[in-house]
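sry for the spam today, last one i promise. struct tokens for design, 213 residues
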């Protein structure tokens, strides 16, 4: 008796590319119009099919470079897998969602940038991917040093830490509570420096620095 024939499933890598915009005081997500059908012209997360023998992280970097035209990311990692059989009209496609971060000082030219709480309608199931992955990203902040350092850069202020936390969690913590959390993060130090004086007055925010490479 012959075994039943099972249709093979392709694997796509879809990337939540994040950049902390200092002027917008928020973490922004990169999206771009699709060049080909299905959903040609519709906004989507950058994604590629996983190549034979290709690692997930390498595919994610390829997606950010080719679909968004952005410079090399500071860090990347895996988030979740989405296996709804009908998620792609071309046939069964398994999606592995990854995160990627850009240096806050890097050029942002190319894609459309949107706040996580104001993402427009996206192709495929990409809105669900963003919604389901946001709490995972929030949980990584201050726990995963690679993710946190990649998002905030080598040095940042307490005010910027508050902005990033609010962007990912939806809530702005009390500065003292966040400071205690940050004091416990390995490789992160509270310096004696302060940022430039605030135009509206008040005490300038403290500067934090990563001590690990």
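last one done:
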């Amino acid at each position: 008796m012959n075994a039943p024939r099972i249709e093979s499933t392709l694997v796509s890598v879809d990337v939540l590319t994040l950049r902390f915009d200092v002027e917008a005081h928020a973490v922004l997500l990169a999206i771009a119009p699709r060049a080909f059908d299905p959903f040609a012209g519709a906004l989507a997360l950058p994604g590629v099919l996983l190549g034979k023998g290709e690692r997930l992280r390498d595919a994610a970097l390829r997606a950010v470079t080719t679909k968004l035209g952005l410079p090399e990311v500071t860090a990347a990692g895996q988030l979740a897998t989405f296996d709804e059989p009908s998620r792609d009209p071309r046939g069964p496609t398994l999606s592995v969602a990854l995160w990627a971060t850009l240096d806050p000082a890097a050029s942002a030219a190319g894609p459309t940038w949107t706040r996580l709480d104001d993402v427009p309608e996206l192709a495929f199931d990409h809105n669900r991917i963003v919604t389901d992955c946001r709490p995972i990203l929030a949980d990584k902040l201050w726990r995963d040093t690679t993710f946190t350092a990649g998002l905030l850069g080598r040095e940042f202020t307490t005010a910027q830490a508050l902005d990033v936390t609010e962007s990912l969690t939806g809530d702005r913590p009390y500065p003292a509570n966040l400071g205690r959390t940050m004091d416990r993060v390995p490789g992160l130090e509270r310096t004696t420096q302060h940022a430039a004086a605030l135009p509206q007055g008040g005490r300038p925010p403290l500067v934090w620095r990563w001590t690990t490479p």
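The CA atoms of residues 32 and 127 lie 13 Å apart. ok im logging off now
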